[in-house]
Every structure is written in C-alpha cells, then in structure tokens.
Design a protein that fits this description.
With 855 residues, this protein is α+β, with helices and mostly antiparallel strands. It is built from 27 helices and 31 strands. The strands form nine sheets. The chain has a six-stranded antiparallel beta sheet with strand order 19-20-18-23-21-22. Strand 10 and strand 11 form a beta hairpin. The termini are far apart. The protein binds one RNA strand of 85 nucleotides through helix 7, strand 11, strand 15, helix 11 and strand 27.
Length: 855
RNA sequence: GCUUGAGUGGUGAAAUUGGCAAACACGCUAGACUUAGGAUCUAGUGCCGAAAGGUUUAAGGGUUCGAGUCCCUUCUCAAGCACCA
C-alpha cells in the first residue's frame, strides 16, 4: 500500500509491478483441476526503438483478457518472448563491429522493462528468445526433420544482389530496382538456395482454413495465396518429337483456340523457333529481360509478343495454330504456356486484337454481353461437344483428351516453395555439411552411422564448378550448431554470405562416420572420416517464429522441442492476437510446420491457431501510418511518465474498437486520466483513508441495477474484445457511484474487480485500502444477477406512423391491451388519433407502441 | 481492374433479432468554487428554429407499421490481390 491521499500513479504502479513480479502472480503451472486458457501474442522483434504504441495496444488487450479469464477461474497461460534474429541487429553489428547478440540483449532488456512498466501480467518464467542456442537447437532440429522427410531441398534461385553494398537484399529492401539503403542499383543473381517444400502441404493448408475461427479477410487471403485452381494439361504437337504442354482451367473453350502463347523464358523456344523469326525472337527476349518486374507486370501496358514461325496442331480439329512468345505468360505458373482463346479470355482477347489474330466464339453469350465472354454458357462450334453446358464440357473434353493421351486433369497452385535461406549472419546456421559424392557414398555404406539420423531417402545435392556436393545432416547430438565468430559481419565482394568469413576451423570439418565425431579438417583425412564444408547460409527470421508458441509450454525442457505432458494439457493457444500484416507469411509458415509436426505424430492437433484476432493499426496524430520520416511517431514512455500506465492502457483501449485502425490523439488521454482521478477521489478521502462512502452496508435499488448492468456489459464486452464499450460502461457506473451518498463495500469491491483488468494498478491499490488481504487477481469474477436488473416501471415509447410522439410509464407486468390503451391516452397521441383513422396497432413488448393512422 | 470491408455530430465513437440515433468521452459555451486554474463541480451542446415544431446516419431509390441496420444503383475511403491462364 502506498500511503498517500493523492493519486500518485508513479508510486502505486511501481509498487504493484514489484508485487506481481515478487509473487509470480502470473506464473502458470499445469493444474488438471482447472480449465486452461492459453493466450498468445505475436512476440515482438526487439528493435532499438523500444515498444511502440501498437505493441501496447495488442499486449494490453491480451493482458485484459488474461486477467479476466484468471478471475473466471481459468488456469491462464500468457507468455512472452523475443523474435530476436533479424536484419536491424545485423546492420547495427556491421556499423559498430560489435556482435549482434550484444545489441539484441540490450534491446530485449529494454522491451522487458517497458512491458513491466505497463503492468502486463506475463509469465516471465517462460520467456523465450529465438537467438538463444537452447532455443534454436530445436529450430535446427525441426529443420532436420523436414530435411529427413524430403521437404527441404536446394535449388538455384535468383536473389537480389547489390554490388555496391556487397550484399544480398530481401524483396522488401528493394524499392523500384534500387536498394532502399543508399539507392544503389541491384541485380538478379542466381544463387544456390535452400527451399522448403510447402507446396506438398498446399491442399492441407487450404482445407484446414475452413476449420479456423479467424477473420474472414485473413482466411480469404491465405486461400488466395495458396491459389488452388483445377484444370487440365493439354499437349499440342509441334513437330513429331516436340509437344508443347499448356495448362488451362477452361478446357471447354478449346475449340476457340487461335494461338498459343509461351513465356519468353520457355525452354522449348530454341527448338521451335523458325530460321526467319530467330532474330525477332532473340530481340524480344532481350527486351523482356531488360524490363524490371514492375514494368513486366504493369497491367496498364499493352500486350506485346512475337511469332515463333512455328505451328502446333489442334488435338481435335487438326488445325495449324501459330505459336507466339509473349511476356504476359508467366514462366512460373502452370507450364509457362497457354492456349489463346481470345473470345473467352480478356488477356487473350487483348493480345489477339493487337496482332490481328482470329477471334472464335465457342460459347453462347448471355444477352447484352460482348466479347470477351468469360462466364458460363453453352458450347457452340465445338464439334461433338456443341450443346453441352460449359461446366459439363470441361469434364467431357478433358476425359476425351485423356482418352487420346494428349491431356490430363490436374491441379495448379499459386503457392511456391518457400525460399528458406538468407545470405546473412544473424540467423540460425543450417546444421548441414557439404561433402563430395564419394564421401557421401562412403557414409551410405557405413552401417549404423550417427549421421544417418536425419539422412533423407533421396540425397540432396547440387553441382558447382562441375563438382557435385551432397548434403550431410548433423545429428541431434551436434545441436545446437552455434554461430561462429567472424572477422566481419559484412559479406565480402567475393563471397555471398558473412559466414564464409568464419575461421577455417569452423568452415572446414571432417566427420567420423561411425562415431559421429566432428573436428576441424586438418587436411589429412584418415580412414573412417569424411571431409566437408559447412553450409554458410542462415535461416530466415520466420524459422524461429514458426514454432515459438510450442516452446512456451516447456521452455527449459532439454529432451525434446516440447514436453508431451505440457502439450497434452495446454494443447494450442485459445486466443492468438497479432497484426494482420502476417496473414500470409508467419501465419502460413507456422501452420505448415505445425501440420508437418502433426503428421510426424509429435503434436495432438493439426492446426496451431484456432482463434485469431488482429488489432487495428494505431496511426499517427496526423492520420498517417507512424514513421520516422513523417516524424509522427508517438513514444509511449512520455505518456506513462505524465499520466501513468493505467491511463495509457485505458486510453489505448478506449480509442475505438480493437480491430479498427485509428489515429492517436493525445487530447483524449486527459479523458481517461480524469476518470482514474475520479475513481481515486471516490475511494480515498482527503486524509488518504478509504472513503466512508464506500463502506456502506447496502445500496439503493437503482445503484444495484446499475452495478449489475455493468457486470453484464463489461463481461460481455471483454468476451467479445470490445474493450472501448466496457470502459464506457465503467465510466457510467462511476458516474452513478458519484451520485450515490453511499454504496456498500461489496459493490465497491465489485466495481474495482470490473476495473482491474483494464487498470490493474489502481484497482489493486484501492482493493487493499478496502481492507482486502489477497491480491485482486485472486478474486473470483463478480456474478451477474438478472433479478437485480428488473424494473417495476417500464418506459414504453409511443409512435404514430413510426414517429415518436410520446412515452408512457407502465407497470412491468401490465397486459399488452392495457399498455395499448394507456398509449392511446397519451397526451401527444390523442390529437393524432382524433384527426385520422387508426388502421393498425403494433406493440413491441416492453419497448414501444406504434399506431398507424391515416390522416 | 478484381475481391472484401467501411462511410453516423466540431472530434474519437455507441446503438441485441430492423424498434427512442448520437450512449461514453474529447472539445466548446455558460455558471459555481478559487489569489489562480491546464484542478474540481453544475448546466447546456447533431442541424434549422425565439418557440411550437421540423429535420438528420455518404447520395439516390426500394422493402417495411417502423431502416444507421435489409435490398438495388452511384460516389468516396481503406485493406488485400493484381496478366496465376
């Protein structure tokens, strides 16, 4: 207790924050006697800027929910951790030469301290950190499981390379073909990359979405991202030994094909282009290659293309169909070739118009429709398929094509495999060593080698300078594979990853196939040992966040990534709150890993996040997104200093609906601060003692009704995450308290309990001053008693022709006929009734009477 | 361009299944208490009108006894997707 008559929020808040920490108030253990409630926040990246107002919005929301559920008797788990790998720490390291872990630790300490200062009820015993080797050993372990099961492979993929900066950049760091930092040109450079086969889970990821209690927009976004489309592959013969395969979702339009278009990168171009067209084709391909992705995908531009000089044969009509090259066809979708049906596809239509290609209508048009007609209809000019409805025709034509062995029903996904490696220092090292083929063969021949623990059925290999290298996975005993010290965190011009700057004793190793021992290579490899080079890419930041929620369940468990006992009790989060910007990144990746671990039998559920909620973005006071360049970033620390943490929490929750994006406006902090001061004044007298007013033995009936209405409304509002309306109801209740000469101590307690999730510090303080020994967090949530809310007198509104004209007060148990009779006598209504003819009476129980009168 | 949301006072916003629009706050106006007020309290505050009253949820239309809420058209804003064959 703080001995003061003033609302000294600084002293009060510091006191109760220390109390909660000391008593481990929010520490959760498995307790089979209680129902569990696991609340998950998207854990933050601990940036140097510290906690921003958006973090506080989400974390306050989960804190309110957690404190409320605890009062409801749930065993609440509300953990927190740090998604601490990432680029800013690395850039800081490059600039200062200090190891990124130093700055990371500093930032984490700051974040933790700030969370402490806003009074979050977090179980700090379970804090995790993705950069902690004891954490990322399991990230590496899960990667090895993926590797073992054939879901991790290597591929040559183009990445953004900036010669001036000497580094590879992420897509987000490239703006209009220039580096975001320094504005230097960047180029596409193919590099060997690790890729996770997320497409193998395309169907499962898609199907699982329907079972999720997520915002519809987010579900839609994931579905769209996965982009499943059913259709068929159709082979067109070009030459006796060459066929061109196209993918189409509209096989029913096949009689309308008037050209075939293939992507400029298509592999068959060289073998089909005619001698006369060769020059034009080459020029076109060069032109396209020089275009940026932005220019190529600009929808506003006209379609361009060039004829190859070759023709394909229509599988049904035998017609010769010209083959064109055009950059509106994308190599990475389907087969990189499409059948052009101008009459029934907008893009093909545009292309055909530009190059004067025939437009053959093969589907009837609905009235007032013009070409291109992309809707459904009935087939015409389609040989024996004419007369079929398009939906039926799709099946019929595909099965005929299959019968002719020139087609196949198939499913395409927009989803691509996940590029999983980064040319960075500050990430999880891959637990992989590359060896030559003969050494790999040697390992395979070695019985019971520990290195076979994660060895895949099909070897993962790539070829460099004519030499094939094979991936050998480390064993679980070698984990964690920690980051080596490097002389520089910056990649040199010659190499592409900072880890290539590591000492040779880390980079070059020899492995004992039978014992599993790994030592620095010394140039001399004895019998039983094989030599190799470590993988020098690191994993992307998403890796650690793919499974972090599971680690909270048993953060110090060393035998497995999660303790089955804890998993059995806590299962998956009951509520996940975090930003919508992760709709298709983190939320998709994490589902992939979770489903994979589920398929291995390691998890009891197939989906990680049953219920998801996105808080809206808090904008700057000018209505723009907060950003350094606009200078509209709000520092929450100054608000805490001036008004206190309770005021900041209330303010952010009172700002508007949680899911809405809303501008910050400091003026309104005054409103909630006044509310808190008013609470204080009602409870504490001028001498600093508890106000006599709050210690009565009974309440007025009117106040009892208000109090129970408040219990109901606050409870429902919290359940529905509508904290702004909960707070307004608390304000109404306080205004009611203010008008009462005295209220019962019990009611005073109830009010504090309802306030406690929102403004926990002041609630604890006043609770203690009321004479309570235990923390308010131990008190059971107040019960709503509907009988306290019944009124003996009801107000009924009287309308004439839908307009309110009067109101009457009637006994709560009056009959409808009595009420209607009373309504007819209402002074303002009489005039209308006498002027016209009453044709209808409507009575809405306990609410209103409406008379329909013809005047 | 497509998809999905959303548009309510000077401001942030409330409003069960269609049933008193603007709760709760901010701001503003007047008053009280004060040496003082950026403290506190009281009253008022959508718009027009002196009042009676009329009128009001982006605009227009419709359904209904009754529409912020349902349907149609248009406009504006936001988010996502963006040649995915």
């Amino acid at each position: 207790m703080i001995k003061t008559a003033e609302y000294d929020f600084k002293a009060i808040e510091a006191h109760w924050q220390a109390f909660w920490a000391e008593h481990k108030t929010f520490h959760a253990e498995i307790d089979e006697s209680k129902k569990k409630y696991w609340i998950l926040d998207m854990f933050p990246y601990p940036s140097g800027a510290g906690l921003h107002v958006g973090h506080i919005e989400g974390y306050t929301a989960t804190d309110i929910l957690g404190r409320y559920k605890k009062a409801q008797g749930f065993n609440v788990l509300h953990p927190m951790g740090w998604d601490a790998f990432g680029l800013p720490a690395e850039q800081h390291a490059i600039a200062t030469g200090l190891h990124p872990s130093i700055n990371t630790k500093k930032n984490i300490d700051n974040f933790r301290q700030q969370m402490h200062r806003i009074g979050l009820g977090i179980d700090w015993e379970r804090e995790i950190n993705t950069t902690d080797p004891e954490y990322f050993r399991w990230t590496q372990w899960i990667f090895l499981q993926l590797f073992k099961h054939g879901l991790a492979y290597v591929d040559q993929k183009p990445v953004w390379w900036c010669p001036q900066l000497g580094t590879v950049l992420a897509n987000e760091e490239v703006v209009d073909g220039k580096s975001e930092r320094g504005n230097y040109p960047v180029e596409r450079k193919p590099l060997r990359q690790w890729v996770l086969k997320i497409t193998a889970y395309g169907d499962k990821l898609l199907k699982g979405i329907d079972s999720l209690d997520w915002p519809e927009a987010t579900k839609r976004q994931q579905k769209q991202w996965i982009g499943r489309s059913e259709g068929g592959l159709v082979s067109f013969e070009v030459k006796p030994d060459i066929t061109l395969e196209v993918f189409t979702t509209r096989p029913d339009t096949i009689f309308g094909v008037s050209f075939i278009a293939i992507a400029p990168e298509h592999g068959l171009i060289d073998s089909i282009v005619s001698v006369e067209q060769k020059h034009l084709v080459e020029d076109y391909r060069k032109q396209v290659a020089a275009k940026s992705d932005l220019e190529r995908t600009d929808l506003a531009k006209n379609k361009t293309g060039v004829f190859t000089g070759s023709y394909a044969v229509h599988p049904f009509t035998g017609e010769r169909i010209p083959i064109w090259i055009s950059d509106y066809v994308l190599m990475h979708h389907g087969t990189g070739a499409v059948m052009g049906v101008p009459a029934h596809d907008e893009r093909d239509f545009e292309f055909a118009q530009t190059y004067h290609l025939p437009i053959k209508q093969v589907i009837t048009l609905s009235s007032n429709e013009t070409l291109p007609a992309v809707g459904e209809g009935v087939l015409v000019n389609s040989g024996k398929f004419s007369g079929l409805a398009t939906l039926d025709a799709r099946k019929a034509i595909l099965s005929e094509l299959e019968h002719l062995k020139v087609g196949k029903t198939t499913v395409q996904y927009k989803l691509h495999d996940w590029l999983f490696s980064r040319q960075r220092y500050w990430g999880e090292p891959f637990p992989i060593v590359w060896v030559e083929e003969k050494d790999y063969q040697y390992l395979l021949a070695c019985d019971h080698s520990p290195f076979k623990e994660f060895l895949p059925k099909t070897p993962i290999a790539y070829t460099e300078n004519g030499k094939s290298l094979f991936a050998v996975p480390l064993t679980s005993k070698h984990l964690p594979l920690t980051l080596p010290e490097v002389s520089s965190y910056k990649p040199t011009m010659g190499s592409t990853t900072p880890l290539q700057n590591a000492d040779s004793s880390w980079l070059n190793v020899k492995m004992n196939c039978s014992t599993g021992e790994i030592l620095p290579a010394d140039g001399f490899v004895e019998e039983g040992w094989i030599a190799g080079v470590r993988e020098t890419n690191t994993m992307p930041q998403w890796a650690g966040s793919c499974w972090y929620y599971l680690r909270y369940l048993s953060p110090h468990f060393s035998n497995n990534f999660v303790d089955d006992k804890a998993l059995h009790y806590w299962e998956t989060p009951d509520m996940y709150i975090g930003g919508a910007e992760h709709a298709v990144l983190h939320l998709l990746y994490a589902r992939f890993w979770h489903q994979f671990l589920f398929d291995l039998g390691l998890l009891p559920t197939s989906e990680p996040f049953k219920k998801l909620f996105h808080p809206g973005i808090i904008l700057g006071p000018d209505g723009n997104k907060m950003s350094k360049s606009l200078g509209n970033v709000i520092n929450p620390n100054s608000v805490i200093d001036e008004y206190g943490a309770d005021a900041l929490r209330l303010y952010e929750m009172f700002l508007g609906p949680l899911e809405a994006s809303k501008p910050w406006s400091l003026q309104n902090v005054e409103g909630v601060y006044r509310f808190l001061k008013k609470v204080w004044r009602e409870f504490v007298d001028l001498e600093g003692e508890i106000a006599k007013k709050m210690l009565g033995s009974c309440d007025s009936a009117e106040f009892q009704r208000l109090l129970h209405e408040t219990i109901l409304k606050v409870t429902e509002a919290i359940e529905n995450l509508r904290f702004n309306t909960a707070i307004s109801q608390l304000m109404i209740c306080l205004n009611g308290i203010q008008k009462e000469p005295q209220i019962s101590k019990n009611s005073a307690k109830v009010f504090l309990q309802l306030l406690a999730p929102f403004a926990p510090h002041i609630a604890e303080e006043l609770w203690e001053r009321l004479g309570e020994k235990a923390s308010i967090t131990e008190a059971a949530w107040p019960n709503f008693d509907a009988s306290k809310c019944v009124r003996s007198q009801l107000k009924v509104v009287v309308q004439v022709n839908g307009k309110v004209r009067d109101e009457i007060y009637v006994s709560a148990n009056a009959e409808p006929s009595e009420i209607i009779a009373a309504a007819k006598k209402a002074s303002k209504v009489v005039a209308y009734l006498s002027k016209g003819t009453l044709v209808k009476e409507i009575y809405v129980p306990k609410k209103l009477v409406n008379f329909v009168v013809i005047l």
